[in-house]
Amino acid sequence: MIKRYARPQMTQYWSDQAKYEAWLAVELAVCEVYHEEGMITEDEMQALRKASFEITRIEAIEQETRHDVVAFTRAVSETLGDEKRWIHYGLTSTDVVDTALGVVFKQVNALFKEDILKLGSGLVKKANQYKHTVCMGRTHGVHAEITSFGLKYALWVDELDRQLHRFEDACQGIEVGKISGAVGNCLITGTTLQDKVTERLGLQTSKISTQVLQRDRHAYYLSVIALIGSTLEKISVEFRHLQRTEVREVEEGFGSKQKGSSAMPHKRNPISFENISGLSRVLRGLMMTSFEDIALWHERDISHSSVERIIFPDATVLLDHMLNRMTGLIENLQVFEENMLKNIELTHGVIYAQRVMSYLIEHKAFSREVAYDLVQPLAMQAWQKSQDFKPLLMDNEAIRKVMSLAEIDQCFTLDYYLKEVDAIYARVGL
User: Fold this and answer.
1) CA atoms within 13 Å, Cβ hemisphere of 276
2) End residue of a domain, out of 341, 362, 378
3) In a domain, 428, yes or no
4) Which residues are catalytic?
5) What would the mean pLDDT of 262-268 be, rounded to a whole number?
6) How far apart are CA 296 and CA 326, in angstroms?
């Protein structure tokens, strides 16, 4: 984890303290089930519930054992009496580690859902605020047709909703536990103990496993993490372009003492959006790494474990940072509606060409080909010679034979381009 991008709310779940607490929770949950089944006496269970650990002691033992779970169980056992015999009884290391990981992810995912919903709420607010704000729609980076600035937000609202559904599905697959023994044959614990343990921990239970939970679950989860990051990058790229000096329809918030450049005092750069764009690439890289962990040797090897110590904390911490940073950016984004209107006029009215062509087809019975070939040369003349498109239409003999000045004029109204906005919003649920 990189401290620069780490919020305490998320990093706490990946601390050594949180890890060992989760491990102990699994160990004690197993003991509680054994107690229910009559294997462990009430007195023993009362003593087991007082089990504890010291991280420094675990680390000291691990220096000798070169095995983290063995070090943990021995450190815990040192805090117990004869009842320590039940700690780790019938379990293999990964019964504890993978099930505890499910516990950690359950906490992480609850915070993520808060993050996503908070960002979604911010996007909804802006979608409603700019519902009828006209701006230039662009395709290939080139002026295309007028649209609503609010539709940009509405699109992201809809996409983030899909991401939330994907995330909830991924959570179902990763908030899972297994107590199935060294090779997954449930030799000592049987098949029902796992179900009782996972229920106690608030987890789903694995139908079948080897020594480990199968890593397709984790790869899917990281895929969804990367997808959410890609949505954030999409938003970032949009606003990075709109903040360009030549466009300047938006600008990310800039603090009173903030500096944009060490050399150029005038600079106000879209650094936060650029940051999110960059970090989204890291998430996609971590996703690809998770796919490499799916194919393990036979019932288990540990080639995945070193990887997961890095990718799980890093991916979740980064996305948490990105979601919260984007929420703040959306809330504090400066929007220059006057520049949106100026940019609409930059192309001398040629952006209304499709409206004129459609009018000829719909109201004057022109074929599409004839209408297109009549309008395009006038649009090209306006663009190439920096002439206003509307007067060219009014002076064109072929156009004037079929369209009055009032008809031409009505093809240049802004309201026309907002006429379906309400319907689109309704479809999105706004």
Assistant:
1) 29
2) 341
3) no
4) 140, 261
5) 70
6) 37
